[in-house]
Design a protein that fits this description.
479 residues; alpha+beta; Thrombin, subunit H; seven-stranded antiparallel beta sheet; six-stranded antiparallel beta barrel; 8 helices; 19% helix; 28% strand; secreted; signal; TRYPSIN_HIS
Amino acid sequence: MKLLSSILLLNTIEAGWKQKWEERFGNAVEDKRATERNAACDAKALSETAKFEIQGGSWDCPALGQDVANILCEPKCDDPTDRGNWPRRSFIKVQCRTNPTVKIRNVSNNMQCNPDLCLESTAAVDIPKGQISFSKRNKSKTLFSVTCDGKTGTQAAVICFNSSGALTSKTHDWQNVCDPVLTQTTTEPPTTEFAPLTDSIKSGLETCVSASNFPTGGRKKRERLSKIVGGVNAEEGSWPWITRLFLTESIGGGSGFLCSGSIIHNHWVLSAAHCCDGIAEVVATFGDISRSTFESGQFSLTSTTFFNHPEWGQGADGDFGNSDWCLIKFNEDILAAAPEPEKVKIACLPSEPIEHGSGCWVAGWGTTSSGGSTSTTLLSAGVNILGKDYCENFSNNGILMPDDVCAGLPDNDNNGLTDPGKDACQGDSGGPLICPVDGKAVLAAVVSRGVGCASEGFPGLYSATFNAKDWMRDIILNN
């Protein structure tokens, strides 16, 4: 017992001396290191920001002089009403180590603050019996509201383009909207740039054959599509080019992913690259409308041969998600295998990009809300093609890639953002965006990506088939 007590006493004495040493010397050493590290971090932040002078502005580094892991410096204008010419996420970030490291994003040597053109434009506007006021802003446009004396609510929404200061509104003669005497003198009728929409696909559209999509010479051929009936729930035969895809990561696997595709050739289906990525096998069901019941004319084929577009997922153009095309080859002739040929047809490929404002349709078995359950029945919805300028100015999707097609509902409520309510969703990926062109059912694009589903300001993004025609032709002719 004496030996055990002696050992415990020695251990206690040793621990006590260790604690006293750490309290007297250890904390001082750590404090000294922290002070040196912080000083080096501050000096690095100041030296890096000094390299990029901001005309009419300065660098805001609120963490300078503090014991922090990182110092984030962001550009700001001296006059809060001015606007900087830099992207929204521009910064210099210093990670505080013994040898500090630096991350720089969207910073250049020509950063400057300029007067807000939109504020200048609206300041020059006179609203008889009313006023115009700021509502909200994004990187490309600013929304203003016109309110009238003695009236509640917004009487007109005015959009200003930040780069030019130009003002526009869907309300006719919006400057005089508060003065009935002035507005009564105008008779100009309202105009629209968007085709009217229906959720059921147009009847009587023509389909195509392999030779017309990928001609090798001679006259192109077309086939007539039988009459389409139905609304949101598609009827049998109304989407004869669509195929439901079940994709698995192993051959014969029991669990997998739901996507869609479109027949573009007797042996080929076009879908999305993000559907085919990492996939070993796909089972394609043709002539199908309902997933829960077997229909006459329905049949399935299996493939293990896929070709993703080489630029998908690369990010060399600044976006990893565009060029979202996958070609799936079937050994069998898809049309010849159909027990009811009128229910299985080839969609036409475009000869030119689809025009802004066109009324088109998207269909699939995906979820009916973001994160919701998939549909057992093929659903279709009408959407407008939103051109590059319109999409970038009236949505939060950012800058479009050359192969991107933006489609959804335009800004009908004049709040500066595309309307919610119509879109593709999870499980619809790879499916067709069909537009009527010269009486033909043209596969304008495939469902690619988006933020949520049918959300305000986030119309769907699709990958244009027109941009992939040369690649598709090379793959099909060489395989």
